[in-house]
Amino acid sequence: YPEQKKEIASRHRSLHRLMTRPDGKPRCVACMLCVTVCPSECIYVEAAEDPDPEIQKYPAKFIIDLSRCCFCGFCVEACPEDAIRMDTGNVEFAQYSQEDMIYDLDKLIG
């Protein structure tokens, strides 16, 4: 390492990502289960009413502070919509500032 990188196991928990619906909107329905179950209290979700009658709420804000996250995967297990995953395979995310460790909707979906 870093010249030769080891293969990452399929069950490895790496950076978070938010899944999207076919229309591009996040699958998250802002149920707050991930916020409730997180032992590090590093997830912040602000719910808003969705104009689509089939979807009650959506996350107006979804923020994960990776500097506080312990990568336990409880948020992934708790999500009833399979909206959050930790399967990006990205394990190199060291930053020089704490602000760069805060991931919002744009970073989590992108």
From TrEMBL:
GO CC list: membrane
Record Gene3D superfamilies: 3.30.70.3270
Keyword set, alphabetical order: 4Fe-4S, Cell membrane, Iron, Iron-sulfur, Membrane, Metal-binding, NAD, Quinone, Repeat, Translocase, Ubiquinone
One Pfam family cited in the UniProt record for this chain: Fer4_7
Record bears the keyword 4Fe-4S: yes
GO MF, any single term: oxidoreductase activity, acting on NAD(P)H
Family annotation (InterPro entries): 4Fe4S_Fe-S-bd, 4Fe4S_Fe_S_CS, NADH_quinone_OxRdtase_chainI
UniProt xrefs under SUPFAM superfamilies: 4Fe-4S ferredoxins
Domain 4Fe-4S ferredoxin-type: 16-48, 60-89
Protein name (database record): 4Fe-4S ferredoxin-type domain-containing protein
